[in-house]
What we know:
- By secondary structure, the chain is mostly helical.
- About 80% of the residues lie in helices and about 0% in strands.
- The chain has 2 domains: about 30-75, no CATH class; about 100-295 and about 310-325, MetI-like (MetI-like fold).
- Strands 1-2 form a two-stranded antiparallel sheet.
Amino acid sequence: MLNYILRRLFVAVFLLLGVAIVSWIVIQLPPGDFATTYETFLMSQGGITQEEARERADKLREQLGLDQPQWKQFYDWITGIVTQGKFGYSFAYRRDVGELIKERLGYTLILALAAHSISTVVGIVVGIYVAQRKYSLSDNIASVIAFVLASVPRFWIALVIIYMLVFTFNQHHITSFFSPEYVLAPWSWAKVGDFIRHTWPVVFIAGLGGVARNMRVMRGNLLDVLGQQYVTTARSKGLEEGRVINRHAVPNALHPIVAYQGTVLPYMLQGEMEAAIVIGIPTLGPLFYQSLVNQDIYISGGLLFIYAALIVLGNLISDLSLSILDPRIRYT
């Protein structure tokens, strides 16, 4: 097992390097750079001529190193990550990218993990329930709800929730983690409640698609398992139905769910990103969006690199979890 983990980590190094190269190429595809955005800003807001704006943009481009060849910029960026743990310098925020990500990563992971946990538990429980009632009224209702949850755009749900919070429930502060009186206050149960009151829409929206998917996957897998011979044998021996389901059928039906966990966290981060951008919660989502708009390449590249690392780590954890869940699975 240890050799398998070491091999996976060794391969992950080259995989992350490949992801970094592709991410760098993708974020360089739009025409222009941050200095071009700055030039446009000067002409629209600064009231200066195009020649003056271009001259200032060229000076800024030279100052930030954007006039260097692309391979040189990428080499300096990836070398800083490997040797110093630094993701570069943000042109728009004029701060270290690592500090910007660190400030928001904790809250982002809390919201994404909360959405993931709720969607997994609810989806599995509902999937087990409806699988035992194939084609019943509850099964059909759950299927329709799952289809709707998987189809409705997250941004639209976020807009509806914003409207309800503002005009129905008169909530005045929806674009922050806390109300003004709790921003600098020490942690307490009241502050935790205020945090939940501000962030539940993001968790709810990010988890909707996960509930639908987990329910459908669990239902389908459990129905397949219930039709196998060893389940029929267990029933013929007189075992209680609940024991047959929970002890014999469900563990084997969980394999695809566990394997899916390797990619679910970036998926939840994506759902959190869409909701946070619309609602305005200061997580990694709005930061990533603004970096793409401003062509702040080091923030965009750093976040894509982190997402890739989460997928690699998640896949490794899911593979190890499968070996624990099913003793028949062994890695050499």
